[in-house]
Amino acid sequence: MENTNKLNTNVPLEYQTETGKLNILGFWIFLGAEVALFSTLYAAYFALKDGVMEGPLPIDVFDFNYTIIMTIVLLTSSFTSGLAIHEMRRNNIKAMVVWLVITLLFGAGFLYMEIAEFIHLVHSGATLGTNALWSSFYLLTGTHGVHVAIGIVWITLIIFQALKRGLTPDTAKKVFVSSLYWHFLDFVWIFVFTGVYLLGMVK
Amino acid sequence: MVEFIKDNLILNDPMIVGANISILLTVIVLVFVLTYFKKWKWLWTEWITTVDHKRIGIMYIISALLMLFRGGVDALLMRAQLTVPNASFLSSQHYNEIFTTHGTIMILFMAMPFLLGLMNVVVPLQIGARDVAFPYLNNLSFWSFFFGAILFNISFVFGGSPDAGWTNYAPLAIEGSPGPGINYYLLGLQVSGIGTLLTGINFIVTIIKMRAPGMTLLRMPMFSWTTLITSFIIVFAFPILTVTLAMMTFDRLFGTHFFTLTAGGNPMLWANFFWLWGHPEVYIVVLPAFGIFSEVIATFSRKTLFGHKSMIISLVVISGLSFLVWVHHFYTMGGSANVNNIFSITTMAIAIPTGIKIFNWLGTLYKARIQFTAAMMWALAFIPTFVIGGVTGVMLGMAAADFQYHNTYFLIAHFHYTLIAGVVFACFAGFVYWYPKMFGHKMNEPIGKWAFWFFTIGFNVCFLPQFLLGFAGMPRRVYTYLPEDGWTALNVVSTIGAVGMGIGFVIIVYNVYYSLRHSKMETTGDSWNGRTLEWATATAVPPHYNFPVTPVVKDVDAFWQMKQEGTANKKDIEYEPIHMPNNTGTPFVMSIFFFIAGFGLVFEIWWMAILGIAGSFGCMIFRSLRSHVYDKGYYVSVEEIKRLEQPFHKEA
Amino acid sequence: METENKNVQANRFPWSQVIGFLLSILLTFAAVWVGKITDLSYSQIAIIVFAIAFIQAAVQLFMFMHVTEGEQGKWQLGKMFSAAFFAIVIVAGSVWVMNSMH
Fold first, then answer.
1. Per-residue pLDDT for A90 more than 90?
2. Which residues of C fall within a CB distance of 8 Å from A64?
3. What chain A residue is nearest to B202 in terms of C-alpha separation?
4. Considering only Cβ atoms within 10 Å of each terminal Cβ, which end of chain B, N or C, has fewer?
5. In C, what residues contact B, Cβ < 8 A?
6. B135 in Cβ contact with B578 (< 8 Å)
7. Residues in C 20-79 with any Cβ partner in A closer than 8 A
8. Are B140 and B622 contacting, i.e. CB atoms less than 8 angstroms apart?
């Protein structure tokens, strides 16, 4: 914890303090843990999806075009989050906030679509308790969705802090770490899309 | 409300009622003492909200000793029941509950916190740092562990203990066990798991980023190395447990079908996931133990650890392999020959790096002038005893042979030989060795040696016969047996050994009291003529900032090298103000909310669960909004440093 | 290394993000094409789309998240590589083991 105030102005704001560097490295380690977490959920889906059981099959109830749109929406939000960091490093707080708000709008759009999809699935007879396939489907996508929801609240809080206190090493670090988190949500979704939706549609 | 308490408070078992009363009395006495001596504020500011890694470590160790007491009582109750055939001391249900809580508590609430406690006390000192990377999270780690442990432990007085074994296999734990017991298991572990994961992240960052100048990775002391590798294993293994526990919680509370017998669920998947976490968990507890032995053996052999580099390489290899052997816990579940063969090979492969370590310790001892201190005796006893555990492990690792050994007392004896000889001996060795660092005086050596002899002899008398009982076919987890089974004599011997271990533990606790009264205070920071930086502090108990001036490292065994060069005790030091983190109360509050959420879920009281979850998120938001104020920390002034370093200057 | 001239770089056009974005979209549709349009067998499709998914994940890591950035870039990269290894062990291992149970 020493020398927290010693600044190295040759690097981006978020790396200037010792605390900033520690937090960013710590967050990467945390993302490693998140990989293990989602891997386990993913393993459960793959281990359970072929059991003999009643209830609708993914291929019958998935609307694949809808999922592609969801995927593009989340991917775009990941892109705009990257642009926000780009603007932050140009010290352009207004543009950064604009991109962050756009990111959040796309994130909210994704969440809305996911909830609508869940409602559709429940009406088609695929609920949490229907069978092992759908239990593991909801736990995997639901955990991802909860992460998105938490991300939205978190980034909203950070936007307010950045607006209130301006771009400091502290706020820059927070924006940067939250953007890592947001990219990671798309990182996870790539595999959910590929393994659950795309392979679920292959006969 | 009254109905709810009446329904769940266990009053029909005299032993549990006795426990109830003694817990109540202890609480009353504690509250009285704290109030009478006006210590509440002291408790809050000096301990509960502390971010000092040494104090957090001490709190971990105290909790671990309490849990060792509870787990030990469970063990003695089991031995009492099994001493003679057809005993009716415990009912079968009570016996099930006791072996479940014994296993769970010993691994997760005793071994892990004991080691995490020692890591907390030692590692920042050993790498020459002022604190861990995330002091706030460190406090949160401790409290979420603590409240998780409480949540698990209240099960036996309120609602009933879990009874499906510490492995908690489905379907027994889902269809076979109604009532709140298993929920306690699932949520208690969940809450304490948060703390463990955070500790893992914390120590990785601390060790990567905060080593003293000159301490390259290859110059890092072995205990810090094992902590680093253990933390990596924690970060990859604990999320698996989190998810697995969540799945079973969903199965039990929300009607999902992960591990159920119906609707496509697969109970075997629980075993698969449990051991995907569970095997790495074995290495999470045993690797730091190896680190402790390495430090103790090097210090009391007065030599640099033999084969420092090969030790590190074998550590890394073990950490990778630890994730590739999980199936050996369920060979008999019906895996194909291919699966069992491959996992037999990976399992036996682990013996190679572990063997390298044994030879390194022997190489260190070879031709050394050994000092037989109590800490060293634990370490010396560890080597042969652990080899027995390891060799029987290779026997069990062969899938074909495992069909004979599995689920017998042979297995029980094997893992106690690894976990007690490996982990518990290490905890005691580390406790004695670093005791002066924590409390400023040594533990009494003769009493410590009495404890050692009682415990180690008791241990061997207890568990060697169990190998034979296993060969004679005695299955594990049975609450009684018949006279004509022919297991009586060995069981009697085993129980005598268990009593010996119990006496050993009591002597250790007595030694804490005795040493507090009678031991001389240490006058220097270097109690054992140590080799690593934790002994380089000016006072026996380091001040909260650890080092007034950051040490510079030039070699493995940094402090030894300084002493050789005569640079260890510089007198004319220019101090500078030191930046330190603030105390914090939020993690304590947040952990109480975790507890509330957990308790609500155990009894399916939804408003309480939602309150708890909302409260914990509220704490996180509070932390996020306040972190810029909190992170500022404060400065220790030069006058303050001079005052705290005084004893050292006076002596000079 | 990269961090030292980051402030200078920051004034340029965000090439890495834009290229990453385009690549991601391209790869997504490539995967869809392989899965939906071609008539390869299930296992062939699975291998190809997972390969594509890993490439796309790498795009996120390197082009959006700049995993090698900062003083500890190597540790970060190492962490992600080991995470990938353990992810494969967890998923492929579990599926293989569970499918071989009788």
1. no
2. 36
3. A26
4. N
5. 72, 75, 82-83, 86, 89-90, 93-94, 96-98, 100-102
6. no
7. 20-21, 24-25, 28, 31-32, 35-36, 42, 45-46, 49-50, 52-53, 56-57, 60-61, 63-65, 67, 70-72, 75-76, 79
8. no
Q: How many residues does chain A have?
A: 203
Q: Which residue has the tokens 């994940």?
A: C57
Phi and psi dihedrals of B475, rounded to 5?
-75, 155
* Domain range summary for chain A, segments of one domain joined by +: 11-49+68-201
Q: Which residue has the tokens 């730091």?
A: B288
What pLDDT digit, counting tens, does each position of B557-606 carry? Answer: 888 888 888 776 666 677 888 888 888 888 999 999 999 999 999 998 89
Helix, strand, or coil (residue A111): helix
pLDDT at B137 over 80: yes
Q: Which helix (H) or strand (E) holds A150?
A: helix A132-165
B143-202 pLDDT, tens digit per residue, is 999 999 999 988 888 888 898 889 999 888 888 888 888 999 999 999 999 999 999 999
Q: Which two tokens stand for residue C73?
A: 């870039």
**What amino acid is encoded at B193 in this protein?**
G
DSSP B575: -
Of the residues C22, C32, C85, the best mutation for testing chain A's interface (the one with the most A CB atoms within 10 Å of its CB) is: C32
* Cβ B630 vs Cβ B137: under 8 Å: no
> Which of B343, B202, B197 minimizes the C-alpha distance to B279?
B343
DSSP annotation string for B150-216: HHHHGGGTBT----STTTT-TTTTTTT--SSHHHHHHHHHHHHHHHHHHHHHHHHHHHHH-PPTT--
Q: Which two tokens stand for residue B60?
A: 């971990």
Residue pointed to by tokens 């119990």? B502
pLDDT in tens, B324-344: 999 999 888 888 888 888 999
Task: Identify residue B225 by its one-letter amino acid code.
Answer: W
The closest of B316, B239, C69 to A32, measured between CA atoms, is B239
The secondary structure of C22-91 as a DSSP string is HHHHHHHHHHHIIIIIS---HHHHHHHHHHHHHHHHHHIIIIIS-TT-STTHHHHHHHHHHHHHHHHHHH
Query: Letter for the amino acid at B377?
Result: M
At position A124, the amino acid (one-letter code) is: S
In angstroms, the CA C92 to CA C78 distance is 21
φ/ψ of B630, rounded to 5, equals -60, -45
Between CA B404 and CA B389 the distance in angstroms is 17
Q: What is the pLDDT of residue C3?
A: 42
Does the pLDDT of residue B277 top 90, yes or no?
yes
What is the sign, positive or negative, of the torsion defined by CA atoms of B296, B297, B302, B305? negative
Instruction: Find the DSSP H helices in B483-545.
Output: 488-518
Identity of residue B361: W
Residue from the list C83, C89, C97 with its beta carbon closest to the beta carbon of B339: C97
* Cβ atoms within 10 Å, residue C4: 10
Neighbouring residues of B154: CB distance < 8 A, sequence distance ≥ 6? B184
CA dihedral B262, B268, B272, B274 (to 10 degrees): 70
| Dihedral sign for Cα atoms in the order C39, C40, C46, C50 | negative
Cβ neighbours of residue B199 closer than 8 Å, sequence gap 6 or more:
B116, B119, B138, B141, B231, B234
Find where tokens 């909801």 sit: A138
* Token digits of residue A158: 């950070």
- Identify residue B192 by its one-letter amino acid code: S
Distance CA B52, CA B40 (A): 19
Q: Assign a CATH topology to domain A11-49+68-201.
A: Four Helix Bundle (Hemerythrin (Met), subunit A) (1.20.120)
Neighbours of B448 (CB within 10 A): 24
Give the amino acid at B371: Q
Higher pLDDT: A158 or C35? It is A158
Contact at CB, C97 and B236, closer than 8 angstroms: no
